[in-house]
Design a protein that fits this description.
It is a single chain. It contains 24 helices and four strands. By secondary structure, it is mainly α. The strands form two sheets. A two-stranded antiparallel sheet has the order 1-2.
């Protein structure tokens, strides 16, 4: 469909200007449209699915932009000399390659079973990643006993893993928007598997701490890239939202399952190293599935490959991504620094990073606080103490089902041609369930008396699980819909900030609970959650105003990307 430009991104672009197709940029959403409509020459922009038939519509003339025109002409001459046979039309304008509606090579047009397989594989890799993050919770006592180390050293096994989560997304997310999703996922997960093998054979605590950091550094890739993959393959926001809901559920379920599994291993006849071997077997299985089931899904990279193939066949074709600046300065500015720029300039990203980061830190603090509450105070074994975390998972399952049911309701409204805003679609349930987090924390704080049964105390986890998972589902879907092809960068910086907070919480949690006591230490975080809860209401009421002032979101909306 033609894209009408009534509010030009650049003053050099005339109003009421139409271009037949606008391709996606892999760097800056405000630059690409400007490049393709502001040339003082005619360019073929409509490309049929069949590579052998190059017919198209010509654009109207636009204002001259000398630098871009020279870049395009120089690029065209270079490619023509190296790739086109002599019989080609030397003077024809380059053809801008893009996907047509229904194009079988477009990831959005993959068969449903392929999309589901891709989504399940990404979710399995994420599940393995978060499972490994808390695997040391149940075996920390056994590690301290064997090597005679202080509790702070076993806390580092969690914290340094999360430090890897901080550093990894700064590279994986933008690089997946530069060279593609598949090479980043496969390469990072391969190294994650290698260091998963290294953990159970570590000869001392120092090497184990180092291996855990490196394991976390590569384990974060699925978290950083998965949002972009979902945006690549699901054009329908309903289907994309359901995939993100499973993604969020996996984030919490993987982290919750590991403590009681490792706890039972620690109290059985098996050595604590076997817990790491369980994770390694899981990682190897997922890696095999990943290698054989994940294709490239990033559309700009696929279009670049198509353009190269067409040039070998003698056509003067060019992809949008090939015309973007490839010098080191542009790469750093537009690619590597994009997640940091989004945190600094995008209020949507900044607010969500702070909110989810604090709640994510609480989840990882529980991996050290629950052993204090249920093992030291109540005398439970590590295995049974780990089971006390499962109500959080039950709450996560319940709210995930609720989001699915609400998605079905929204889909029915759309079929009835009723208007549904992005806030109604993504944040309606989250606006209410976010208040469940302080409820669950206050419950846990003031039922933690010796005379109260364990079953009553652990019920507070259900409320926390409902609120925590709903925040993830609602906000990650909201960010994906706002930033679309740049969702990986937004998810990447969100992963960085929440992991940075999560890495710090386990370091001071034991001292905090010992000095303040179970009741007031937990209540302090309940008050913090209560203070942050109105953020969901503000987004629900004023989200459309915030998006209108967002450079990335408004530019993508204008380009219909």
């Amino acid at each position: 469909m033609p894209v009408a430009i009534h509010d030009p991104i650049s003053e050099e672009i005339p109003t009421n200007f139409e271009v037949e197709l606008v391709a996606e940029s892999a760097t800056d959403p405000e630059l690409l449209l400007h490049r393709y409509v502001s040339r003082d020459r005619e360019i073929l922009v409509k490309v049929p699915t069949s590579h052998s038939q190059l017919s198209g519509h010509r654009t109207h003339r636009a204002a001259s932009e000398k630098v871009d025109a020279e870049n395009l002409e120089a690029y065209s001459e270079k490619e023509s000399a190296s790739n086109r046979p002599a019989s080609s039309e030397e003077d024809s304008a380059p053809t801008l390659v893009d996907f047509e509606e229904g194009d079988p090579e477009d990831p959005r047009n993959l068969p449903p079973y392929r999309k589901n397989l891709i989504a399940i594989t990404v979710i399995l890799s994420l599940l393995n990643s978060t499972f490994a993050s808390s695997i040391t919770s149940g075996i920390s006592g056994a590690i301290r006993e064997e090597w005679g180390v202080a509790p702070i050293m076993t806390s580092l096994l969690v914290s340094l893993y999360m430090v890897g989560y901080v550093l990894g997304p700064l590279v994986y997310a933008p690089m997946s928007e530069h060279i593609g999703r598949r090479p980043i996922l496969v390469t990072a997960f391969t190294f994650y598997f290698i260091f998963s093998v290294a953990c159970p054979v570590a000869p001392n605590i120092g090497s184990l701490v180092a291996f855990r950091f490196l394991q976390g550094l590569f384990a974060t890739c699925p978290i950083a890239v998965s949002g972009g993959v979902f945006a690549d393959i699901y054009a329908d926001p309903i289907k994309r939202g359901r995939a993100v809901a499973l993604f969020c559920g996996s984030t919490i379920m993987g982290a919750l399952c590991a403590p009681f599994i490792s706890g039972y291993i620690a109290t059985s006849h098996m050595h604590w190293r076997f817990a790491f071997w369980v994770n390694t077997i899981f990682a190897g299985t997922v890696l095999i599935i990943l290698v054989f089931s994940i294709p490239e899904t990033f559309r700009p990279v696929l279009l670049m490959k198509r353009a190269r193939k067409m040039r070998k066949e003698g056509h003067n074709a060019v992809a949008a991504y090939e015309l973007e600046d490839k010098d080191f300065k542009s790469f750093v500015t537009h690619v590597l620094l994009r997640p940091v720029i989004m945190l600094y300039k995008e209020p949507i990203v900044a607010a969500i990073c702070l909110y989810i980061g604090m709640m994510y830190g609480l989840l990882y603090m529980f991996f050290l606080a629950f052993p204090i509450i249920f093992q030291q105070v109540r005398g439970l074994s590590p295995g049974k103490g780990g089971l006390m975390l499962l109500p959080i998972g039950l709450g996560a399952v319940c709210v995930t089902i609720a989001h699915y049911i609400y998605d079905i309701h929204v889909q029915k409204l759309r079929k009835q041609n009723k208007e549904v805003t992005l806030e109604q679609d993504r944040l309606f349930i989250t606006m209410f369930s976010g208040w469940f987090i302080p409820i669950g924390l206050f419950w846990l704080a003031w039922t933690s008396y010796p005379g109260v049964p364990n079953e009553v105390v652990m019920l507070g986890g259900i409320f926390f699980g409902v609120g925590f998972t709903s925040l993830f589902i609602g906000f990650l879907n909201y960010v994906t819909d706002c930033y679309k092809i740049y969702a990986a960068s937004a998810h990447g910086i969100m992963s960085v900030t929440r992991s940075l907070i999560a890495a710090s919480f386990p370091l001071f949690a034991p001292a905090m609970y010992n000095r303040m006591g179970i009741h007031w230490a937990t209540s302090l975080w309940a008050f913090v959650a209560l203070f942050l809860a109105p953020v969901t209401v503000l987004f629900y009421k004023y989200g459309h105003i915030i998006r209108a002032r967002s450079a990335f979101a408004s530019a993508l909306a204008k380009q219909n990307l």
